[in-house]
Amino acid sequence: MKKQQLIALMYGWLVVFGLIFIASIALALLLRFTTFNEPTLSWVTLVIGLISLFIGGIIAGVKGKAKGWIIGGFTGLGFTLFIFLVQYLGYQQMFSLEQSIHHLGYILAALFGGVIGVNIIAGDKT
Question: What's the number of domains the chain is made of?
Answer without folding.
Answer: 1
